[in-house]
Amino acid sequence: MARTRCYRDGVLADEDFPIDQVSEHLAEPSALVWVDLCAPKLEELQLVADELGLHRLAVEDATQGRQRPKLDRYDGHDFFTAYTVELDVESGRLVTAEVSAFITPNALITVRRDESFPIDALLRRWDDEADLTKYGVGALLHGLLDFVIDGHFDAVESLDEQIEQLEDLLFDDRPHDATVQRRSFELRKSLVQLRRVVLPMREVVNTMMRRDIGLVPDELMPYYQDVYDHVLRATEWTESLRDLVNTILETNLTIQGNRLNIITKKVTSWAAIIAVPTAITGFYGQNVPYPGFAHHSGFVASSLLILGLSVALYVAFRRKDWL
């Protein structure tokens, strides 16, 4: 079912009225109308499009979905697409929800792909900033942008916390190679997906703020500049986290190589120590007479020789940090 609101002079005057009454509300000079459609069919959206004169290409983009974040300009209205994001901490997967909006001089029509977009939270954001509604559709659009960008920030912050936990595993005394590799891949994949959502928003917000477009009144320009600053910070933060995840992967490989070198040194050192008694007992096992042959002194001499050389090699390897 569609959700609707009508503001008059910045005050909420009507709510949840039928879509066929949108034109009646828009006929009033001071009216500002919001219409929300969740997963509409093309025929359902076409009714609103015919009533408001929306472009056919924009209507198709809204119904098909999976658009990149963008702002398209048409004669009489603009078309806007963005994504809210949320990080699933357990799986490391980024959950996205697409929202599109038709922007006319006195109406905002939002189109959601499904119920995953938290529309009630957006309404609370608008109600908390009710004093801005008097500035027209730009105020509703600002609330939508601010809500979406705040979600980007929360996702980036969650990713940052997960990467910090990954660093702790990386330098733990017990190896966690499989966990670090799997988690690094999951977070890197989420960061790539988040970058596709966050990076285009910089161009979108910058275009909205252009004075020749006339979408944002001067009274709302500081609020849009604040949103634009948040977009830049989220973009830079995402880029730095991508580099950090790549660094973690490279560091993990380096640590594995160093650990393998240490193991190799230890195994080689112990093999050298074990080779001493093997060589001596092999020598004394010859079937020819030698000093101490068939005497107790020969056994004592060989045992002392094994013990002395083994201890000497052990001390030498310890000094070189091979053991």
Automatic annotation (TrEMBL):
Organism annotation: Nocardioides pocheonensis
Membrane-crossing residue ranges in chain numbering: 267-285, 297-317
Keywords assigned: Cell membrane, Membrane, Transmembrane, Transmembrane helix, Transport
Annotated protein name in UniProt: Magnesium transporter
Signal peptide: none
GO molecular function list: cobalt ion binding; cobalt ion transmembrane transporter activity; magnesium ion binding; magnesium ion transmembrane transporter activity
Lineage summary: Bacteria, Bacillati, Actinomycetota, Actinomycetes, Propionibacteriales
Annotated membrane topology: Multi-pass membrane protein
Annotated family: Belongs to the CorA metal ion transporter (MIT) (TC 1.A.35) family.
Stored InterPro entries: CorA_cytoplasmic_dom, CorA_TM1_TM2, MgTranspt_CorA/ZnTranspt_ZntB
Subcellular location: Cell membrane
Domain of life: Bacteria
CDD domains in the record: TmCorA-like
Chief location: membrane
GO cellular component: plasma membrane
Gene3D superfamilies membership: CorA soluble domain-like (3.30.460.20), Magnesium transport protein CorA, transmembrane region (1.20.58.340)
